[in-house]
Amino acid sequence: MKNNICIAMSILLFGFLFLVFTGMHIGDAFSIIFFCSIVCFVIWLIGKIMQQFSHFIKKLFGQGSNMQNQPTMAPSPTATTSTHIMTAPPHVTSIHSFLTQPAANPFFPSQNNWMSNIRSKESSQDSDMISIYDPTGKPLKLGAKNEKGAGGEGTVYELPINPNFLVKIYKKTTLSDSRKKDELRKRIEDMLRLGIFAQSKFLAWPIMPAMNDKKEIIGFVMRKCSGASFLNLRSPRNILNHFPNWTRRELALIALDYVKKVRMLADHQVLVNDFNPSNFLMNDNCSVSFIDCDSYQITGPHGINITRTYFPSHVAPELMTNKYLMDRPRTIEHVEFGVALTVFNILMCGLHPYNYYAPKEKGDCSTPEQNLIKGRCPLGKGADCKFPKGNWYNMWSWLPFNLKSTFIQMFKDGHSNPAVRPSLATLQANLEELLYLMSKDPNFCIMVPTKPKKQKSSSGVAPRQRSTFVTLQR
Residue by residue, what is the 3-state secondary structure of 49-90? Predict the structure, then answer.
């Protein structure tokens, strides 16, 4: 409106000035002004028409592309009963919105699908491209430049539309086995039903399936977890190289966070199977993230999804000595053993509880894996072997009595009798006690003590300390 008034005033002013300077008859002047007004009106009208036409074109080829983004693959008859699990959690109305949001708040509704921001020309020049599809049938090309790593079962790629997410695609050798392929499908479908874990930032949990052109599951999309793996805790020197300011307190915080999260998973009938240190990441805030989550034992509508993955040096001994147990569901006792072993590794700066030194045998004896099977460890009274040479015993002596008792009960008494293994709740209480003692006495925080802790009583701990934290029973 303001623009129209300005145009009219400009025309009148132009006509008045023209009349004054030329001395033209007033009738002729009004004719010229009228003619100019008509010309200006026509120009303005053409501009408005072009503007509306431009909006129409943008709407036709911009927003209108959403019509082309609707599902083009009709669901197969066998998949109609489970289409609700082929999407993000129930509160997410769009896979695209789920994947393209910042990691801080990835859940919000949108009207597009997960492929709307992908341009095929971005990766069409790669010679070893693979094509995957989202649940609506829209394709995505992945190539060598997207690859982040490969393992025994599959290859991990970075999602082109959002580097905060990764795609794991199983290898052809795995998918060619019909039994393994069916097991993977069932496990991923059951994991997708557990929407609470898809929202957990510390889990590389499946949030949607990746499919082939036949609408068969060949992998999944997951959140990217970052941090240094537990492999960096394999020695005091290595720890300080990566985290120069850390003390033993940070190790205790990591161990506590780790135990709490494994317990949380177990409370939902999700059991960690593979305790490979590379599957757990830690950051400067002593927070732990879990990757390789598709190796977990999941209980869902398909029943118990059994996995046979394990790490030889971090597994319950009965699974090593009785291979038939690998084809049976894992139990909480298996988890308790693996978690306790990992916590021991963390607090002891990489030392394995079955790594020992035997003077009579003139040196370190066998590998931790072999010693684990035999059940020979240096913990507790009456052990026929000792800690390896160095400050390892000093580090052990500065652990609280209750925590040392838990380790001894786990690795000696519980080695051949899973029923007596301490619970995860007990281990958590022991770590909380350790952190309490660290807050009272800074000597507990020394990563590598040069001297062993002096025992205050025959039991190895002051009576007040033993009564402060009651060991939880299962």
Answer: HHHHHHHHHHHHHHHCHHHHCCCCCCCCHHHHHHHHHCCCCC
